[in-house]
Amino acid sequence: MKKDFGDNISNKVYEHRVLARLSQQELADKVGVSKQTIFVMEKGNYVPTLLLAFRIADYFQVPMNEIFQYEEGNNNDRH
Length: 79
Prior knowledge:
It contains five helices and two strands. By secondary structure, it is mainly α. It has one domain: 434 Repressor (Amino-terminal Domain). Helix 2 crosses helix 3. The radius of gyration is 14 Å and the shape is globular. The two termini are 17 Å apart.
C-alpha cells in the first residue's frame, strides 16, 4: 500500500498564463499537453510530471520554483 505523506505541489500556472495573455489552449499547445491538463493543473487537481513542470517554467523563462511550490505534509516519520 502506498503511504500518503500529505505532501502537495501548488502552482501559479494560472497567474503566469494570464500575465502572458495566453488561453489555456495556447499554453497547452506551447508545452505539448491538452487544454484539459492545463485546466486541472490550474485548479490544483493535477500535479504535473517533472518534465512538464520544466517545460512550463522554461516557456515562461522563470525558475521552476517560481511556478511550482512544494508543500510538506505533516508526517514526521520519513526515515
